Amino acid sequence: MKLPRSASSCVVLTLVILLGAWPASLLAAAQPKEKVLIDFTSVKRDPDGKIFRVYEYAHGDWDKHIVDLAGRGTLIKAATGKGGLGEDKTMVQFGKASVVDLQFVIGNANQTEALSFSLEDKDGSEQTWTIPLAGKPQGQLLKQRLDLGKSDNEQKAGTTPGMNLKKIGTWQVKGNWSDAKVEVLLVKLTAEQ
Q1: How far is CA 49 from the centre of its chain?
Q2: How much of the chain is in helix, strand and coil states, percent to nearest 5?
C-alpha cells in the first residue's frame, strides 16, 4: 500500500483514522457503569469463627436454611417461601439510584413462583417490588430490574407519604409466603452510574 505524499492527503488520512476510531471510543464511554449496592458474594470469616455477610438476619422458615457461598452468593434453600433476610439500620446508599437490578440464579429444586424486595425508609414508609420466578430458566444468571419510583405494593405509608430513598433504614428479600420450596442464589443488587 502506498501512502499519500501531499500534506492535504496526510490530513485527510489522519481524519479518516481518527473518525473511524471515534464511534468505538464514544460507545465505550456511553456504556453505563455498574455500581454494586449489595454484594451477596462477599462473605468473610474471621479466624475466631465470626462470619461477616451483607445481610444482618434471616427469619421465618428461611432461618438456618441459608448458605453463604463466598465468591458465589447467598443460597436460599428453604422448604417454603415463608421467610426472608435483610438488614436493619443499613448503610446501603439507595438515594442515587432510580432503578436497581437484582441478580440471581434459580436452582433446580425451586418451586416458588416469586420473591419480593422491600425497602423501608426512616419514617416508616414501606414498599415492595415483586421478583417473578415462574417460567424463567434455571441455572442461569438472571437480572430483575426494579424501578424504585414505582413499587408494586405499599405496605405502610409512613409519617411522610412516599419513599425517601436517601433515608432508607431497612431492606429485605422475602418469600411469597407460599408452601412451595425455594432454591435461589442471590448474587448482587446493582445500580447504573
Answers
A1: 28
A2: 15, 45, 45
Tell me what the mean pLDDT of segment 157-168 comes to.
89
Say how far apart CA 104 and CA 74 lie, in whole Å: 9
Angle at 135 between CA 185 and CA 114, to 5 degrees: 55
Residue 30 has pLDDT above 70, yes or no: no
User: Domain 34-192 maps to which CATH number in 2.60.120.430, 1.20.1250.20, 3.30.505.50, 3.40.605.10?
Assistant: 2.60.120.430
Task: Map grid coordinates 409519617 to a residue.
Answer: 159
pTM of the model: 0.81
The torsion angle over the Cα atoms of residues 14, 16, 18 and 20, rounded to 10 degrees, is -160
Which sequence spans correspond to the domains of the chain?
1-31, 34-192
Count other Cβ atoms within 10 Å, centred on residue 95: 11
